[in-house]
């Protein structure tokens, strides 16, 4: 394995093994990684010697913490938005390839899985979670939106949990991930090597997973499902906040914390995310990805993306100055514009 490569794609036994190999950057995706992953998946799809795909992250901290947002932020500020959109276009096309992949696709996740990392794992059939598993789609906190197939996946989670995750960006550990269907199997990290070797050796995927899987027990979100479903079923972001405030007034600490979290996020991004989840339940995967490319093509023109990345990832002052600064000031027409057809610039479905 080339230790200096950003991604390593290799045949081992019956497996096509993909290692995301930027551990110091928490394996954040670059355009090179997206292209190499797509190339390997295309080649292995018709290679009869490869019967399954295994995806893993290098290092002990992360499977993949997202796309290389700092780089995309730099490109946008430099006026090179077309190059940034090239990344998102090819990333979304990769997400579609994974969703429609003809062979078992297994992600081994024992660490952080966020943003772009969700896109290269959630749409495969098997998401194996170790004890350090930590999921989030935190994009509304940086003036972005839960993309990489969130439009399709989030509304299909139980109850209103997808809307909750989209609007709060809250982190989910392994037990709740199993409950929500974000992860399919709980396997302790010290059993990952044995599982990997069994899969490489060609053991039937379901049997290999069943031998090492365990019940992680209930997670903290399970007890809050009633509050989540009653509050996040409201018809707007403002109405959701009102219901959370009402629940908090009746003694729900969870509702109070959730409302406080939402009030730190970009008002524009929350409204976009609300529309994503509201519309996404009726969309096929490809149309959901087209929708996301429409949104990202407009977001790269928006103030909040650059301001959010500055405040959270660059200056790290945690004090983003959103424009507009309140939910009440967000114009419905501005949100609708993000979802409008791109004409000749629509996402191509290869």
Automatic annotation (TrEMBL):
Source organism of this protein record: Microvirga alba
CDD domains noted in UniProt: crotonase-like
Domain of life (superkingdom): Bacteria
Name this polypeptide is given: 3-hydroxyisobutyryl-CoA hydrolase
BP term (GO), one: L-valine catabolic process
SUPFAM superfamilies reported for this sequence: ClpP/crotonase (SSF52096)
Keyword terms of this UniProt record: Hydrolase
GO MF annotation: an example: 3-hydroxyisobutyryl-CoA hydrolase activity
Pfam family, one: ECH_2
EC identifiers of the protein: 3.1.2.4
InterPro entries registered for this protein in UniProt: ClpP/crotonase-like_dom_sf, ECH_dom, HIBYL-CoA-H
Swiss-Prot/TrEMBL catalytic activity: 3-hydroxy-2-methylpropanoyl-CoA + H2O = 3-hydroxy-2-methylpropanoate + CoA + H(+)
The keyword NAD is assigned to this record: no
Domain Enoyl-CoA hydratase/isomerase span(s) in chain numbering: 16-339
UniProt KW Hydrolase keyword: yes
């Amino acid at each position: 394995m080339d230790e200096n490569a950003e991604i390593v794609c290799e045949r081992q036994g019956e497996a096509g093994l993909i290692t995301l190999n930027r551990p110091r950057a928490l394996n954040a995706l670059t355009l090179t990684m997206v292209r190499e992953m797509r190339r390997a998946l295309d080649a292995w799809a018709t290679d009869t010697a490869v019967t399954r795909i295994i995806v893993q992250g290098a290092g002990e901290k992360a499977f993949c913490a997202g796309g290389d947002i700092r780089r995309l932020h730099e490109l946008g500020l430099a006026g090179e938005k077309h190059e940034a959109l090239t990344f998102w276009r090819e990333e979304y096309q990769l997400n579609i390839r994974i969703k429609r992949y003809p062979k078992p696709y297994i992600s081994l996740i024992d660490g952080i899985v966020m943003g772009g990392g969700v896109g290269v794992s959630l749409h495969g059939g098997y998401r194996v979670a170790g004890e350090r598993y930590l999921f989030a789609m935190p994009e509304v906190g940086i003036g972005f939106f839960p993309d990489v197939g969130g439009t399709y996946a989030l509304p299909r989670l139980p109850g209103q949990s997808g809307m909750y995750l989209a609007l709060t960006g809250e982190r989910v550990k392994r037990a709740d991930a199993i409950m929500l269907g974000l992860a399919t199997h709980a396997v302790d990290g010290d059993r990952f090597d044995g599982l990997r070797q069994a899969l490489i050796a060609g053991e039937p995927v379901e049997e290999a997973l069943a031998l090492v899987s365990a019940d992680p027990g209930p997670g903290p979100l399970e007890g809050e499902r009633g509050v989540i479903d009653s509050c996040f079923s409201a018809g707007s972001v403002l109405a959701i906040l009102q219901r959370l405030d009402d629940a908090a007034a009746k003694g729900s600490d969870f509702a109070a914390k959730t409302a406080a979290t939402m009030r730190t996020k970009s008002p524009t991004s929350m409204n976009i995310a609300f529309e994503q989840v509201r519309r996404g339940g009726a969309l096929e995967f490809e149309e959901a990805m087209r929708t996301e490319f429409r949104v990202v093509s407009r977001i790269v023109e928006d103030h909040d993306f650059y301001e959010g990345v500055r405040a959270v990832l660059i200056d790290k002052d945690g004090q983003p100055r959103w424009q507009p600064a309140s939910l009440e000031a967000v114009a419905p027409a501005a949100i609708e514009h993000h979802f409008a057809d791109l004409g000749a610039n629509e996402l191509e479905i290869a």
